[in-house]
Amino acid sequence: MTDDSTDGARPPRVTQPLASRDAGASVTHRRTVPGEARARGRGRFARLVRAVTAAALAPAAAATLAAPAVAAPGTATGGKGLRWEACAGVSTPDLRCARVTVPLDHSRRRGRTISVVISRLPATDPARRRGVLLTTGGGPGGPGVPLPVSLAPALSAEVRARYDLIGFDMRFVERSTPIGCGQPEEEPGGFWVRPATPGRFPAEAAEARRYAEDCVRASGWALPHATTANAARDMDLIRAALGEEKISYLGGSYAGLLGTVYGTLFPHRVDRFVLDSPVNADTIWRPYEMGRTPAFEQGTVALAAWAAARHAEYGLGETTAEVHATLTGILDRAARAPIVIGAHAWTVGELGALLVAGIYDERAFGVVAAAFAAVAAGREPFLPFPIRPPRPEGVPGVPADHHTATNIAYRCADAPWPRDPRVYLRDIAAERNRHPLFGPGNANINPCAFWPPAKDETVRLDGNSAPAALVVAALRDVAVPPSVSRAVAARIRGSRLVTIDAHTHAPFPHYGNACLNATVTHYLITGELPATDTACSTGNG
């Protein structure tokens, strides 16, 4: 890790590592599904002991619970009519929602079904309407139904005139047959991770296994089918239900990955795709999560340098190294015992999630620096966002631990994870020296080591023959480093990459860079990609 501040000091070694959150194998052909593209080609915290018993590391047993039958009156199957109604949990009257029935298992179209909820804001000028622009949340596990409401004001009038904005909650997310793992609350950041605490590897492995078993008991009928490929197949049924020959798409972060998988499976259905900071389908999930560890370390240094320059305001330290030591000292203290301030005991998981929220976007540096300064002084920190994902208001039936459960379900089922504990122990040891803050936790064992097998296949990006896309990236992105976005652009022939020099994630359209937004807008309106990759100037102009 290098220090990019002017004081020239190097951040000290940290003893309590953290782990990154989202919120990225070769093809494993397990099952073919009709109607897809033929070409396949080519998705936190530190130390260890030695062994874990074979029983403790055995995969969780297969589920015996049956999936609910959720097809309901007014639900559309395939291309049949949709019934548009008010959207649960959304107060905007212009946004209307409908249910699309999809197979639980796309290789058994006549088997069990689940429902996927979609939303629609109609194009503002029917005479110029081109089609639909789909979008959904990142994560995996973020909702998409409300997104058209926040997206519409940020898009140009020309784009709004031409496209119906269509949001959707992916299968098992919020309104779309939600699942849980039987836990009383969400994990911090909605991301399951445990510190690779010295001497506690067997206990943390056992906890990971128990969580996987709890998930099987609560939602075992769904887990083998919680894959990005199945979500992409659901997207194509949404397309058919809407009566569209092709779809355009805007997806950021994990949703960008979903867009690439859709393009691989259904290239002839792709119109204009904007992939904003997309995760690379060829590296999901463990290689991607470990591969971005250096960016997390560098992001923390950037936050520390920023706070050091404002020591008079935050009091965290006068140099980058001093601020870094203050932050890691607070985390080390919380790792030994939660830090009690007022009525709340701050855990290392909560404070780690707070730090990750800060390093994702330079615009959050001030909020996170102030929060850590408050904790250091024993004061209750002010946070404008929840550390644990809240239940969506007005959406019935969402389990208390839903977002964590959905995130881990997709990450575990999308691609194989190591089953051998020695792999995790080896990687923890290697990461401890290289990336002491985030490396060991990112390398640590999690419930995916014990997950039931997926009834699907990993869809590699190098089998993608879709039309060229416009790929967006921020050059100092921590969550999806720009090298990942570049790889995605290179894999989809003819695609163009547009970048901004900013420390942020998924910048279109809300970061507000005029060059970036104009480039994306021109593409959505005309279908014309830039002649070459485009580097937009720093700043919002």
Automatic annotation (TrEMBL):
Domain Peptidase S33 tripeptidyl aminopeptidase-like C-terminal: 438-536
Pfam families: Abhydrolase_1 (PF00561), Abhydrolase_4 (PF08386)
Tagged with keyword Hydrolase: yes
Ranges that cross the membrane: none
Cited InterPro entries: AB_hydrolase_1, AB_hydrolase_fold, Pept_S33_TAP-like_C, Serine_prot/Carboxylest_S33
Record has Transport as a keyword: no
Region ranges (Disordered): 1-30
Keywords: Hydrolase, Signal
The protein, known as: Alpha/beta fold hydrolase
Top-level taxon of origin: Bacteria
Classification via Gene3D superfamilies: alpha/beta hydrolase
GO molecular function annotation: hydrolase activity
Family named by the database record: Belongs to the peptidase S33 family.
Sequence ranges assigned to domain AB hydrolase-1 in this UniProt record: 138-279
